[in-house]
Amino acid sequence: MAAQPLSRAPWVVPTWQRLSEALEGGRLGHGLLLAGAGELGQSDLAERLAARLLCEAPAEGLACGSCRGCRLRLAGTHPDLRRIGLLERDDGRLKTEIGVEQIRQLSHWFSLTPQFGRGLVALISPADLLNMAAANAVLKTLEEPAPDRYLLLVCSQLQRLPATVRSRCQKWILQPPAAEVSRQWLQGEGIAARDAAQALEWAAGQPVAALELARDGGLALFREVSEQLDALATGRIGPSELGRIWAGDQPEQRLRAAVAEVARRGWSGEGLTVAGDFTKLAAWSRQADRARALYAVPLRHEMLLVELLQGWRSLHRGRTA
Ligand SMILES: [Zn+2]
């Protein structure tokens, strides 16, 4: 995560200002959709808004951080704030969707009286993982708005949320910033200029994903994978040998890097003339993505990798170093 709160990032600030103005002017909706592709700061925005709504002495449009409401919220015990997210399964892993029972309980809670009189705030995140029945239950809540009830839906894949729910919400959608803004922001977070530019390419222009990539040592691995794909394409290394290397060292990460690298090449046009056919490259990328998903289940992974890498080699047949 960013060292600075994302709500202060340059591409988030204007949206926060408009949100504050809507709040001050009494124009804030009952159902609010806070969205951005991947993570652009919508979670921070939702947290900031929830804090502001529950604060008893907001100053300059922000929560004070020290009143009773703020203290309880920071301690995670504010009775007028509810968080709905993915529940844990019996084996300790997270469920893959938000279920209808969670929303039914929320609707009931919304019918109660706020304990501190400032309203009830519910935060659903990730709202794009509401299952169909849960989304319908949310829709019902949105159709019967009560005063001082705020439903904040945090979303990173807007198209996954049913259109009926989307259309009932006041929308606050963050757009990815221009490349130059992202680069400057990344450098402000301590990332070197060259790393920032490269991380942005692999993260498809998404600044937060690029920051994570540059921070967790991912760039070195991405560079290595890019070079290995070139070596494989030109026959300097064989699929079996590379498959063995990948299987033995961070295979899932390498597959993720390979998918990002193909996307980057598609974007920049790099290597497309030799690969000949973008469709084939895209198909290979999907295959790599599936292989990555298969890593969650025990399989003969090395064979899977070798097969995938053979495919890459034959895509580039005839190309030599
Ligand atoms: Zn406060």
What does it look like?
- The protein has 321 residues and is α/β, with parallel strands linked by helices.
- The chain has two domains: 169 residues, 3-Layer(aba) Sandwich (Rossmann fold); 99 residues, Zinc Finger, Delta Prime, domain 3, CATH 1.20.272.
- The protein is 53% helix and 8% strand.
- It contains 15 helices and five strands.
- A five-stranded parallel β-sheet has the order 2-3-4-1-5, with helices on both faces.
- Strand 3, helix 5 and strand 4 form a beta-alpha-beta unit.
- Helix 7 crosses helix 8, helix 11 packs across helix 15 and helix 14 runs antiparallel to helix 15.
- The longest helix has 18 residues.
- The mean pLDDT is 90.
- The structure holds zinc ion.
- Keywords: DNA-directed DNA polymerase, Nucleotidyltransferase, Transferase.
- It is an enzyme of class 2 (transferase).
- Pfam families: DNA_pol3_delta2 (PF13177).
- It catalyses: DNA(n) + a 2'-deoxyribonucleoside 5'-triphosphate = DNA(n+1) + diphosphate.
- Its EC number is 2.7.7.7.
Number of strands: 5
- How big a fraction of the residues is strand? 5-15%
- Structural class per helix/strand content? alpha/beta
CATH architectural label of the largest domain: 3-Layer(aba) Sandwich
Count of the domains: 2
CATH class of the largest domain: Alpha Beta
Main sheet: strands, sense, barrel: 5 strands, parallel
Radius of gyration: 23 Å
Number of helices: 15
**Element-by-element helix/strand order:** HEHHEHEHEHEHHHHHHHHH
At CATH level 3, the topology of the largest domain is Rossmann fold
CATH superfamily of the largest domain: P-loop containing nucleotide triphosphate hydrolases
Tell me the span between the first and last alpha carbons.
Answer: 40 Å
Shape type: elongated
